[in-house]
Amino acid sequence: MSGGAKIIGFIVAGILILFGCLFILAATSPQNQSKGGTFVVGLILIGIGLAIVFAIKMREPKPVQKVEVTQKIDLTGDVKLEEMKCRNCSAPLSKDSVVLKEGAIFVSCPYCKTSYQVEEAPKW
To answer: Which H/E stretch holds residue 10?
Structure first.
């Protein structure tokens, strides 16, 4: 819903709620001869006004929440770390060269500008 339509909707809802309150106040007046009809009309006007406000609020887009996933790996036992080298130019790679995208590990060499996916061989 555009901003102009939203403002018009809130104005119409405010007017309906205002007139509804005026009708309810008129129903409590000692000069009232309608025997409850004015009170019912006031309640109906307030209900329509609140329904318009509710409809406008329900059509507003929900804010998008950013979800960040962090994976931590605990290694058990003795682990021997090896230096990673680019498979194209054999240059040493830093931790900034390795990126996890959509569950796969990708390496980008800062020296030869090669990018490739790391393929892990089965251990059996």
So the answer is: helix 3-27
Under the banding of pLDDT at 50, 70 and 90, the label for residue 74 is low
Smallest Cα–Cα separation from 12: which of 69, 52, 59, 64?
A: 52
Sign of the CA dihedral 119, 74, 77, 107? positive
Report the alpha-carbon distance of residue 38 to residue 22 in Å, rounded: 9
Mean pLDDT over residues 27-50, rounded?
84
Rounded Cα distance, 40 and 42, in Å: 5
Output the pTM of the full model. 0.48
Cα–Cα distance for residue pair 79/21, rounded to 1 Å: 76
Instruction: Give the residue, 58 or 36, on which the prediction is more confident.
Output: 58
> How would you list the strands of the sheet with 98-101, edge to edge?
98-101, 104-108, 115-117
